[in-house]
Amino acid sequence: MKSWRRTKAIAIKEVLQLSRDRLTFGMIIGIPIIQLLLFGFAINQDVRHISAGVADLAGTSASRSLVSAVEATQVLDVNVHVRTGDELEDLLRVGRISVGIYIPPDFERRITRGDKTAADLLVDASDPVILGQVQALRLMPFNLRKAPGLDFTKSPGPFEIRAFYNPERRTEVQIVPGLIGVILTLTMVLFTAIAIVRERELGNMEMLITTPVRSHELMIGKILPYIVIGLIQVAIILGLGYTVFRVPIVGTLSDIFLGSMLFICASLTLGLLISSFAKSQFQAFQLTLFIFLPSILLSGFMFPFDGMPRWAQVVAEVLPLTHFLRIIRGVILRGATLIEMWPEVLALITFFIVAMTIAVLRFTKRLD
Amino acid sequence: MTGDIAIRTEALSRYFGAVKAVDSVSLEIPKAQIYGFLGPNGSGKTTMIRTLCGLLTPTSGSAEVLGLKIPDDAEALRQRIGYMTQRFSLYEDLTVLENMRFFGEVFDMEPARIDARIAALLEDYDLGALKDRQARAMSGGQRQRLALAVATLHEPELLFLDEPTSAVDPENRRDFWESLFALVERGTTILVSTHYMDEAERCHGLAILDKGTLVAVGTPDALMDDIKAQVLTIETAEPASAKRAVQDLPGVLSIAQLGQRLHVLLDPQTEEPVRHVEEALASRSVAAQVTQVRASIEDVFVMATRGKTRRQRGRATGEAA
Ligand SMILES: Nc1ncnc2c1ncn2[C@@H]1O[C@H](COP(=O)(O)OP(=O)(O)O)[C@@H](O)[C@H]1O
Ligand SMILES: [Mg+2]
Questions:
Q1: Predicted model pTM
Q2: How far apart are CA B301 and CA B38, in angstroms?
């Protein structure tokens, strides 16, 4: 009873302080929105209207229909026509165009002979997204039947139209559930990592540890408000993902929020653990990044888990984000239930208990 | 006599690596008194207080606070002590009321008692008008009153105050000491550290610390009476010349300049000290007025720390420090 009162006092104090810290408050709302929009729109693989130039040295009706077929895909906008390949390269170098279409004089002969590719695409490869986009184009995904006079049947290179339409439309859908995990990792870990170190830096801790408050009361009181904040962030991301990016939500909301809450608790205790090692807020920040980077790289958010080397998979299994991604993608996209995903749920609970125990044990009411 | 002793330390030491912050200090501090730790910055006052609060583990030696062994029984001690840290350690972004309520709850006080104590303390420490003001928007004196109010909120038997007046103007310092005496009258024991001589003089008992060691201990009066020196002041228009005239005289232990005055400590063996000094000044034709005065706490301090540092210390712990 006394213990709960002290824990509650810490939690209320934390909320009061938070409500006066405009910057942090803004971050709570701002980080999810900004990150979601950045990932959703800016890092969208579906790039269209890449500016392009053409050097058509063949000048036949066949070459002209190739150009209009390319334009029809809307991936490239042909803005410039030049006479030589060198001019095309110049434009590319100065950045006027990102892609150059070079059609050699013997274009038609190449098609009929079929021993060489008929035309070249010069690509500004400094932008990986454009490169990826144009690689898809190189596979001639556009409908060639609508380009009269072109018969590529003898020409090398298979038509992989399938690869063109699919990945774009799936990116946001895959990214939004993952983003819930990434954003929570960043904010939750950081908030608690800093929360305790800050009290130490500002000198509040010296007073606080002279009171009868217990380590576990302090730890739990500190994370309680952030659980609510984390759930608010989940609601924001989910709401935006659903309305702006039309991410389908197949599973139940209660499973989504319950699963998120487990992950929030795990991340918050990870933050507490960091704060028991960090000597300053700056160190806490560095340590958070130290956790954050492997989390986004290895958890399966950026790269498919199955494609990673064995050691990376082992590391990834320790990170809460890995388990949460499996849970949240399963629940949101495939309609799985938490009960079905019990091994992941268990992993998060175990992480929470272990990290909390270490954090409480490491926190002594001493200054030495 | 244990019943009348609030704190007892035996050869208490706390080192930080090679730094002997507290070096073998043995002390007995009686209850219901204001006991002062006097010493310059770095003399180990804060380390001493932190160790007695159970916040630092002693390197060696032992300490008993309110009959509890430190640091083993530190947790049981928490309810019974109040600690006002040297640096303001309440929450700057909480208001006066919020800070008080928070610490009341953390100290397990009943809600009704919290309210009653807050009302009384707002009155006692003149904080009523500021009760909704955030601590960061308060002056040094106001913060100090708030810190004292919070430290005494749960009515501790023993109060540790670490340089409580360092950020406070002289007038507020006087008021502050009035409130300390009021607390002592109600039976509270107060341990206060300071580097102000005038504050040290107001304590019932005094321990002078220098570089972690206890160099003198006793009541201020006894310390001033027992000083092993004679004290003279020289009033002169040419203090620099006067200093040159006196500094190499046999028996002179220390000279400190205070504006137009020189403060001279002489060996107690020196006979007719006033004439001795007057003659020296006359031989250099320095016009001056020499009088013998009673030793101050500062003189006690200078004498106590003299043995450790051969060279003249001057105003080692002057007001400006
Ligand atoms: N946490 C610490 N780590 C290392 N040295 C310390 C620490 N705290 C105090 N010291 C050193 O111990 C000595 C005494 O310091 P302190 O107790 O703060 O003195 P005071 O309070 O009298 O100014 C100083 O030399 C100080 O540098
Ligand atoms: Mg100090």
A1: 0.79
A2: 9
